[in-house]
Design brief:
The structure holds 2 protein chains of 2 kinds.
Chain A lengths: L10 E7 L4 H9 L4 H4 L1 H6 L9 H16 L5 E8 L8 E12 L2 E9 L5 E11 L1
Antiparallel strand pairs in A: 1-3, 2-5, 3-4, 4-5
Chain B lengths: L10 E8 L2 H10 L5 H4 L1 H5 L13 H4 L4 H5 L11 E10 L8 E13 L3 E11 L5 E12 L2
Antiparallel strand pairs in B: 1-3, 2-5, 3-4, 4-5
Classes of the chains: A alpha+beta, B alpha+beta.
């Protein structure tokens, strides 16, 4: 339950910088040590142009944008995305959200997640929050 | 060769994960989320939750454990080198707190064979020590055919 008053059409956005060491922190915390995330030489070798951020770390940034907006982490009831484009170190991720519908106590959000060049790193991103 | 649809219904787990407070803090900092609900004991004690809670996407840690037996399943024999994480969905039913003992069970709920790729959907249900569902995780993996 969130204390916020939410209306259809409400928008919010948030930005997150992917610092040089982010994949190292995330690998340690999540246990995902896939070399594409931590070994730049391996990332080059497989054609990714260096290491790429864990998709679920970007997913965490998007969830943070939502829970910062609701003010209550427990208000987030569902979140979904399709991973569309790799995120690299030094990228800046922007989450833009809009309340698309409200049914009873549930508000649905449509989200756009882009890098600094405006390219969508996730598509079909949606979430539900409880009012 | 197509991934055989007879694997739909195949189950993984149960896997058990005991939630630690410092692990929650470590995870929150890793996703650059310093919301005091996750890291500030004093704030959290006075919140409506009465103590530290985990960020919703901490499900990556306890439900994500299901990916390992799935990836390593010799019968399924996935081509890991050709596999990418296609989609992710989490549904949250209850907050997760330090000391919770979370049991996760996974099941292959979908296999789609396309010309150049297979799509596999793994669904995980995670319950706490009181038998309450805390999260349903749906992982969709895409495997390019070599």
């Amino acid at each position: 339950m969130s204390e916020k008053v939410i209306k259809i059409g409400d928008t919010f956005s948030a930005k997150e910088d992917v610092d040089k060491y982010r994949t190292i922190y995330y690998a340690g915390a999540s246990g995902d040590f896939n070399p594409i995330h931590i070994d730049p030489e391996f990332g080059e070798m497989v054609g990714l142009g260096g290491v790429i951020l864990h998709g679920l770390c970007t997913f965490g940034f998007v969830a943070k944008a939502i829970t910062d907006w609701t003010g209550d982490p427990g208000a987030l009831k569902r979140i979904k995305c399709r991973f569309a484009k790799p995120v690299h170190l030094g990228d800046t991720i922007t989450t833009e959200a809009k309340v698309s519908s409200i049914e009873g106590s549930k508000a649905s959000l449509e989200l756009k997640v882009t890098d600094q060049e405006g390219q969508e790193v996730f598509t079909m991103t949606s979430a539900d929050v409880e009012l | 060769m197509d991934l055989d649809k007879r694997f739909i219904g195949k189950k993984y787990g149960p896997l058990i994960y005991e939630v630690g407070k410092e692990k929650i803090k470590e995870y929150a900092r890793a996703i650059k989320n310093e919301d005091p609900h996750y890291i500030d004991d004093e704030f959290a004690k006075n919140s409506k939750y009465g103590g530290i809670i985990a960020p919703p996407t901490f499900a990556v840690v306890y439900a994500g454990m299901l990916a390992e037996p799935f990836f390593k399943d010799k019968e399924l024999n996935l081509n890991y080198a050709m596999l990418v994480h296609g989609e992710q969905e989490f549904e949250f039913f209850d907050v997760v707190r330090p000391g919770d003992v979370i049991t996760s069970e996974g099941e292959i709920v979908g296999i789609e064979n396309k010309e150049k790729l297979d799509i596999v959907t793994l669904e995980g249900i995670s319950r706490n020590q009181d038998g309450r569902d805390v999260c349903k995780a749906t992982f969709t993996f895409v495997i390019r055919k070599g």
